[in-house]
UniProtKB/TrEMBL annotation:
Pfam families, per database record: DUF2252
Species classification: Bacteria, Bacillati, Actinomycetota, Actinomycetes, Mycobacteriales
Domain of life of the organism encoding this protein: Bacteria
Name the UniProt record assigns to this protein: DUF2252 domain-containing protein
InterPro entries, A to Z: DUF2252
Length: 462
């Protein structure tokens, strides 16, 4: 079922923008109605939706996925993008289209090094990216602030954090609506800007902490931490079930993956990559919602100096939004992820690409490829909880820039307007959906406790 109610902002060519009257879309979905959440109208069972995702996953890892999601309402939310996609689709949408991040929760914003080797703050997860209504990203972001605050014992600050996050979004949408398009595309949020948002006078050590962590999170840092010499050869160390040499009997498939990946990147990157030799690969467990998806970590060494390079090869399935918004125009879901990432991010890792295994459409598995770590500094809930409002403001800025790049920023600005109607409605939705998330988490936790869903505890050391 396709739920578009206004003129779709993307035509036959992916990401071609058509102007839309944002103020007129208030007649399609009034701003006050953005707060509506009707559990009786959601049209699906949350637990069934979670379990339905298991068919394409590595069955051996499913108990670990269930255990991680059942741990807390926050970990459940991180893994339940499919649940929220169905819930968002159960209500009318504005028809004002952007390239959705698709999983814009507060910990999916972070730092990494741009190709120019500068640290930038931006969205960092694009597994579910797809063109869709701008408010769906905003709702997932704001609800995540409430859930994170509750899970870290700072619920009293949740209302202020939601207000700050939305203000950061709306204020920057208003600014971007006055900017030339090219200036929006060149804009980025630097480490210095993040610190301006997220620190007080007594937080002066945070910038040094960020720089120190970024320096460690590189291929060379990973090489020192994650490899050892085995029989005279450098190998990635095992840490079952989180890292295992599951590919030793599939060397041919792995070489095919790497060859296809090289064909997806620009010629100058392919030329650079041709100077590296693949020396090892492991299967890896990452995240919460991604557990069970095939994720491989490859180690290559530069032929002349032996300099290491780690790439992460991650399985890409259809976006959880496709059954509601229509299929992606990209034949390979790894390509969908990377094209969406480039549309949204201010600067993208130059090594990103895509590949697949198998020729049969029903049996084929798609993958996207990116550098492993490369200066990535991923926030932790307990670290940002004391400064959640400030961090939320920075995230709102970044989300606004992503939507301004990929959609009609004037339409979003005109729809939101200058009154408090949208702010109040988004805020009420955030708390109502956080309550729903608590109920859905309790449903999964009970199923685990009753033995109806297999689960094991476990979280690897980072």
């Amino acid at each position: 079922m396709n739920l578009w109610q206004g003129e779709q902002a993307f035509t036959s060519r992916p990401n071609k923008i058509v102007s839309i009257d944002g103020a007129a879309q208030r007649k399609v979905v009034g701003r006050k109605s953005l707060c509506d959440w009707k559990p009786e109208a959601r049209g699906h069972d949350a637990l069934a939706t979670i379990l339905a995702q298991n068919t394409i996953r590595d069955q051996r890892l499913l108990p670990l996925r269930h255990g991680r999601m059942a741990a807390t309402p926050w970990t459940y939310y991180r893994g339940a993008a499919a649940v929220m996609a169905a819930d968002l689709a159960s209500s009318p949408n504005t028809g004002i289209t952007v390239q959705l991040c698709g999983d814009a929760h507060v910990l999916n914003f972070g730092l990494w090094k741009t190709p120019e080797r500068n640290l930038a703050f931006d969205l960092r997860d694009f597994d579910e990216t797809l063109p869709g209504p701008f408010e769906w990203d905003v709702k997932r972001f704001l609800a995540s602030l409430v859930i994170l605050a509750r899970s870290n014992g700072v619920e009293k600050h949740a209302k202020a954090a939601v207000a700050a996050g939305f203000a950061g979004y709306r204020d920057w949408i208003a600014r971007y609506s006055t900017w030339p398009e090219i200036d929006i595309w060149y804009d980025s949020v630097s480490t210095e800007q993040l610190l301006d948002y997220a620190t007080d006078d007594d937080d002066h050590k945070l910038d040094k902490l960020i720089e120190k962590r970024a320096e460690k999170r590189s291929s060379r840092g990973a090489f020192r931490k994650l490899t050892d010499v085995v029989d005279g050869v450098q190998r990635i160390t095992e840490d079952p079930p989180y890292r295992t040499h599951a590919l030793r009997d599939h060397v041919g498939e792995l070489e095919s993956i790497i060859t296809q990946y090289q064909e997806s990147v620009p010629d100058h990157i392919s030329s650079l990559w041709s100077r590296f030799d693949l020396v090892d690969a492991v299967q890896q467990v990452v995240g919460v919602g991604s557990v069970g998806m095939r994720v491989f970590l490859t180690l290559s060494e530069e032929r002349r100096t032996g300099d290491p390079m780690f790439l992460q090869v991650k399985q890409a399935a259809p976006s959880v939004y496709e059954q509601f918004l229509g299929e992606s125009p990209y034949a390979n879901h790894g390509s969908r992820v990377i094209h969406g990432q480039r549309m949204i991010q201010s600067a993208t890792d130059m090594f990103v690409g895509w590949t697949s295994i198998g020729d049969d459409t029903d049996q084929r598995m798609d993958f996207y490829v990116r550098q492993f770590r490369d200066g990535k500094v991923i926030p932790k809930g307990e670290m940002i909880a004391p400064r959640l409002s400030q961090f939320a403001t920075a995230c709102g800025h970044v989300l606004a820039r992503a939507h301004a790049r990929s959609g009609d920023v004037q339409a979003i600005h005109d729809y939101l307007g200058s009154s408090d109607k949208a702010a109040d409605a988004f805020g009420r939705f955030a708390f109502a959906y956080a309550d729903q998330n608590d109920r859905d988490h309790a449903q999964l936790a009970k199923a685990v406790e009753d033995g109806a869903v297999d689960a094991v505890e476990g979280w690897p050391g980072q």
